[in-house]
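Exercise 7. Given the components listed, write out the predicted structure of the assembled complex. Treat all entries as one system.
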Amino acid sequence: MKSYRKELWFDIKSRRELINITPFVNQCLSESGIKEGLCLVNAMHITASVFINDDESGLHHDFEVWLEKLAPEKPYSQYKHNGFEDNADAHLKRTIMGREVVVAITNGKLDFGPWEQIFYGEFDGMRRKRLLVKIIGE
Ligand code: ZN
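Answer.
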């Protein structure tokens, strides 16, 4: 069995951001040389998510509005976590959107359903952040 590991770094300029990372994961898969197996992609921060959904701007706006209804950023004082930090909402948003995805690899390709794309969701950005790609198989 082959094993491949890579950390991908992103310079996140705003507090919240969605990045379609599918091209980067495809690059990793190509580098790995693995044709049959599993690909795990996870955020390496507890205020960020990796999830699979549609690359459609209206939906991305809807995610932002929906997450702000569930866990509004402000007022910061509404959260007990916000003693020395102001990112309680980001921890909650991350929990809803998930930590990681696993995608099957078949014939050297990510075996997606229609319209599936992998996203990195940042909820407490404005600094460099990273995610992990781990691919196993043969
Ligand atoms: Zn925190």
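Discussion: Helices lie at 22-32, 57-70, 88-97. The two ends are 5 Å apart (CA to CA).
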